[in-house]
Amino acid sequence: MSAIPHHIAIVMDGNGRWATRRCLPRVAGHKKGVDALRACVRHCGERGVKVLTVFAFSSENWNRPPEEVSGLMELLAMALSREVPKLKSEGVRIHFVGDRSGLSEKVRAGLAQAEAATAANTRLVFNVCFSYGGRWDIAQAAARLADRGEPITEQSLDRAMALADVPDPDLLIRTGGERRLSNFLLWQAAYSELYFTDKLWPEFNAAELDAAIADFGQRERRFGRTSQQLQPPAPRKVA
Predict the structure, then answer these.
(1) Could you read off the pLDDT of 106-131 as tens digits, one per residue?
(2) 61 a catalytic residue
(3) Which one of 13, 137, 168, 170 is the catalytic residue?
(4) How many Cβ atoms from other residues are within 10 Å of residue 181's Cβ?
């Protein structure tokens, strides 16, 4: 049986293209993407994944057409009211990660309520990176340390990052055919195994997730060491 990643991170790319290919508005693709995400969360829980982190809305996505941004905000509000009770009943703890300063008071309140409602759950930690960027994350960590007068070291920065309460991702998946991180988890993904698929996010189902996990199970994770160092010592012969 393949090893199961403790923490999976996903760049959910391709919602807009999925809709465009069907002559639908881009927001229709984002709605379909929510369905795919719901199924992914459920399957991660069933497979024994303990942390799932998804890139829902990047710092750069604020530059998209206003109607698309507005549609995404409405979709977020709808998803919160519809999905949070289900997540709570399934033992999922939701955590929103990102810069909330640009969000409306109503949206900020909705995020806080969702986090509070699921805070006691332990089956799966579900991090939603919304208005998030990897560079922002590093900058806010450094600023936090500077405000406290703490020296900036690799260890102190690690403790100040937005996802400091969970292990770094073991597997980072990107759908949609692109082969880049796009400012996602730049610090945390330093040693993540990367998996790219041409499937658009609305098409990413349980079988696709299983394929990514199976591929992960074939990787040799050395973390700077040699293959020989990872091998257990040969048993000593007894005379």
Answers:
(1) 889 999 999 999 999 999 999 999 99
(2) yes
(3) 13
(4) 17
Give the dihedral sign, CA 10/16/19/25.
positive
Given 15, 61, 137, 215, the catalytic residue? 61
Burial 13-50 (b: 16+ CB within 10 A, else e): bbbbbbbeeeeeebbbbbbbbbebbeebbbbbbeeebb
Residue 80 tokens read as 């919160």
Calculate the average pLDDT of the chain.
91
Residue 13 annotated among the catalytic residues of the structure:
yes
Q: How many whole angstroms separate alpha carbon 115 and alpha carbon 121?
A: 10
Contact 36, 206 (CB under 8 A): no
- 124: tokens are 């799966």
Amino acid present at 35: D
Query: Integer distance in angstroms from the first to the last C-alpha of the chain?
Result: 36
**Domain ranges within the chain, ordered by starting residue:** 7-230
pLDDT greater than 70 at residue 239: no
Beta bridge partners of 195: 173
Residues contacting 28, CB < 8 A, separation 6+: 19, 22
Look-up of token digits 């195994």: 193
- Residue 104: φ, ψ to 5°: -70, 160
Tell which residue, 96, 117, 120, has the closest CA to residue 107. 96
Q: State the architecture of 7-230 in CATH terms.
A: 3-Layer(aba) Sandwich (3.40)
Q: Give me 85's structure tokens.
A: 């009770």
- For residue 180, what are its two tokens? 């880049």
